[in-house]
Each structure stands twice: as structure tokens, then as C-alpha cells.
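Onboarding guide, step 5: your first structure request.
Type a short instruction followed by the sequence, for example:

Predict the 3D structure of this protein.
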Amino acid sequence: MTTLLTPRSARRPYESPSVPRQRGAAAPRPSLLQATRLPVPVGLRTGLGFDAVGVPARFGFKVLSRLPANGCVYADSDWWWWLVPAGSDQDLTWPLPACYAPGAEVPDRGPRLVHQPDGTSPYTPPIPLYLLVCQLTGIAPAWSASSPVRSAT
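The system replies with C-alpha cells like these:
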């Protein structure tokens, strides 16, 4: 059982994910927001590590209400964040405007816990979350297979 709380003094400036630039375009300006790590409520098991997937607030209630299972969900005025097992971005490209946050480090806009799971797992299953985010954004799901899929003979 791991409980992670980040005191305000340990927060550092948040750097938004880099976006590829077009030739001749000005470099993006760094964000002035501080970063914070989403805290996991006491009693929940994070043995797989954890990351977060965020969507703009306009999608928050839709995603929360349509998923078959939700883990810890956090919200602020601009974003909603779902905790997922660490590495849930492997072989997946989360569609924009979704944001994948390794280590659940997100911009410090005062996110608060808005949904706590009934069990002891803080995780939202990442594949249903990914498919729903793709559906809401109108992006076709796409992932690369690490190894070929074979049937048992």
C-alpha cells in the first residue's frame, strides 16, 4: 500500500508535453503553472505504479458516466484526470486533446478527488478509457502490436 502526498514545497514548475513544431515556428513558451502529483487516498493499492490520463473538463462527466469502472478521478476547473496503471501509454497514442501524465504529475490548478472507487484499486481500466476518449474526440483507435497475435493450434 503506497500513499503519495506531495507537499506544496516539493512542487516544481509544470512543463507541458512537447508538441512537434513546424519549420520556422517559434519555440513554445514554457508554462508558468506548478506541477503536482495526484495523491492516492489511504488504503488503495498502487503496486503497478500509476500515471494519469486527463481530458478537458467539457468531457469529464461524459467519460465518468460511460465507463464500466472508474478508479480515482480528479477534477479542476479545466481538466479531469483518471489514474491508470503506469505504462498505460505503451503502444498507444492518446488522442488530442487528451493528455497522458507519467507519474500522475499534472498542472497544479487545485485538482480534487471527485470519485473514489469502491474497492482497493485506484485504477481505471486504461483500454475502455482509451476507446471512450477516441470515440468522444472522433479519432479512430490505433495501437501498434509489439508482437504478432497468434491463435493456439
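Each response can be followed by summary notes, for example: The longest strand covers residues 50-56.
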